[in-house]
Each structure stands twice: as structure tokens, then as C-alpha cells.
Amino acid sequence: MPKDLLPEEIFQQAFALGYDDVGITTATIPEEDVEAYRRWILENHHGELGYMENDMRCHPEQLFPGAKTAIIFVSHYKQEKQNFDPQKGVIASYARGRDYHNVHRKRLKKIIHWMEERTGQINIARGFSDSAPIMERALAVQAGLGWFGKNTLLIHRKFGTFTLLSGLLTTLEIPGKVTKERMPRCGSCTRCLDACPTQALSPFKLDATKCLSYHLIESKKEIPKDIGEKNPGYIFGCDICQDVCPHNVRPPQSQAPDFSPSRGIGSILDLSQLEEIENHPEELFGTPLQRRGVQGLKHTMKKILEKDVMIPENEK
Ligand code: SF4
Ligand code: SF4
After folding, report:
1. CB count, 10 Å around CB of 204?
2. What is the SS3 assignment for 286?
């Protein structure tokens, strides 16, 4: 006789593995999020990210047939703010330690294995961590974990926006599911919109083709001059629209060893360090920077050095 899973047991497993919060909701995407996503694609705000054009994102039941429940896990990764330096390139906070995809994949594997053992059933869940076409943020909001910010990120009720999501779809019915409606919580604040150096944000919408993170992580093309010259000194990613968010003032810094700069490449790099890494490329293994590779990072570093980067007044 299959045994039911209780939410408390799931929370216990998740916290023991290092997650900071968990939400349980129905495996459906709210219509409002479906419409916003489809509009975003039609407006071509995803640029070269062809993998974003997958309507399965709106249909969890297609990603994992029979899915009834979505469980969303939160890891918070807030790090010390790194000031800019004209001779160096800053690494976005999420990328300073281990690659969260790998960290989460291992945790999800353990949770699914536990679920199978606990219930005596197999093939009952499929995990994801930015690795499958599914709207993780919409599910997180629906699960009551937080709200959408105008910077398009999840504002977690306790940890703010410096959070990474992963989750799983399961065919199990789990009691205590939450189905919260989207509630805007930014009020009249527009700090992220005003601070974005490339005007990539409008309320609750990101034009990825203007975003530094997109150009410094995802895009394979040369960064357009009008975007590149507004880079205040990032070599990988960008944290500006999170650094200015008032919801990020109170949350504590992450103590998770996996996301600590000491477990990765650090917070800031200069050209000589990159040349050293070129001789020891294994230093990038298991970090998000591997995606760009040392040549890509050197290329961006040279661009930073070529232009006398504008360091914001408050950081001089
Ligand atoms: S990550 Fe940077 S460039 Fe992208 S929207 Fe936020 S502030 Fe703008
Ligand atoms: S900076 Fe202000 S507008 Fe932007 S997400 Fe935070 S609270 Fe919302």
C-alpha cells in the first residue's frame, strides 16, 4: 500500500540538504503568467535565447505527465557587495561559488530517491533547476514563497531577491498545497528601473537584449557598443537591480559553503589572475564561469580595461 507524503517530512529533507525554504503548490501555471510569457516572446525580448521559445513552459503536465504537485525549493546566496575597480572585473554574486545547477541537481536526486523509498513508488517525480522548460518563479509565487518584483525577480518573503530556485514535479497529491495569487509589493518604488545602466527594465518586464547579464553570460555575439559602454565593470553577470532593492537590505548574507566565493573563483578578477587560470583551466570547473570560458572572460576583461570604466559616485 503506497504511503502518503506529508509536507513536514519534505521540509525536513529539504532543510537537511541545505535548502532555505520550500513551497508546495499545484502543478499549473497561472493564466496571468502564461499571457505575460507569451507576450514577452512575441516582443522578442528573449533575444538569442531560442530555448525560451517553448510553450511547454506553460504546461507542467507536458513536462512530466501526470504531474499534480510542484514543490519549489529556495537557496539564498546573498554575498558581500563588491565595489568596482577600473583594473578588475566584478563577478555577479550568484556566480562566486559553485555552480548552483550542480548543487541543486545533487540535492534533487537525493530528495527524489527519498520520496521513492518513502512511498514505495518509482517514477513519481522529475526535478529541475533552470534546466527544463518550466516557469519556476511563477510556481514559487503561487506557492506563497514571495512576490514578483518590478525587476522581474522573485522577492522572497524572508531572503529578498538573492535567491536561486529549483523544484520538482510529482504525480503525488500532497496535502497543504498553497495557491496564492500574484500580489505586487513594490508600491511606488522604481529603484531597480532607475539604477539599471542599460534601461533593460520596465515594470515587471526585462528586455534581455539590453541586459548586461544576458550579454556577459548568455550571448555568443559581441556585446553591442551602446550596451558595453554602460558596463560599470562586470566581467560576468550583473547585480545592480538587486543591490538597490530595499527588500535586500535586511536579509542576512548566505552562510552556505557552496555559494561562498572561497569555493569558486572569488568576487573580482584582474587580467593576471585570468592568465593564471588560462594555464589551469580546471579552476573554472564546477563554477558558473565555466560557461563563458577563460577566453570569453579575458575578452570582457580587455573591454573593461580599454574603456576608462565609470565607477559610480558612491563607490569612489
Ligand atoms: S542585471 Fe543589470 S543590466 Fe540586467 S536588468 Fe538588472 S541592472 Fe539591468
Ligand atoms: S527595487 Fe523597488 S521596484 Fe525594484 S523590485 Fe525592489 S522593491 Fe520592487
Report:
1. 14
2. coil
Q: Is 29 in the pocket of ligand 2 (CB under 6 A)?
A: no
Beta strand 163-170 with 69-76 is antiparallel
85 is catalytic: no
Assigned C-alpha cell, 87: 583594473
Residue type, 27: A
Kindly state the DSSP code that residue 89 receives in the 8-state scheme: E
> Residue 195: is it exposed, middle or buried by C-beta count within 10 angstroms (0-12/13-18/19+)?
middle
Helix, strand and coil in the chain, % to nearest 5: 40, 15, 45
Best of 148, 182, 189 for a ligand 2 pocket test (most atoms within 8 Å of beta carbon):
189
Low-confidence ranges of the chain (pLDDT < 70): 1-3, 308-316
Using an 8 Å Cβ cutoff, are 149 and 191 in contact? no
pLDDT of residue 184: 83
Rounded CA-CA distance 222/224 in Å is 6
d(CA 180, CA 310): 43
- In angstroms, how far is the first alpha carbon of the chain from the final one? 66
Q: Which three cell numbers stand for residue 132?
A: 527544463
Q: Specify the pLDDT at position 182.
A: 81
The pTM for the full model equals 0.94
Q: For ligand 1, which residues put their CB under 6 angstroms from it?
A: 196, 198, 200-201, 206, 211-213, 238, 240-241
CA 235 to chain centroid, in Å, comes to 17
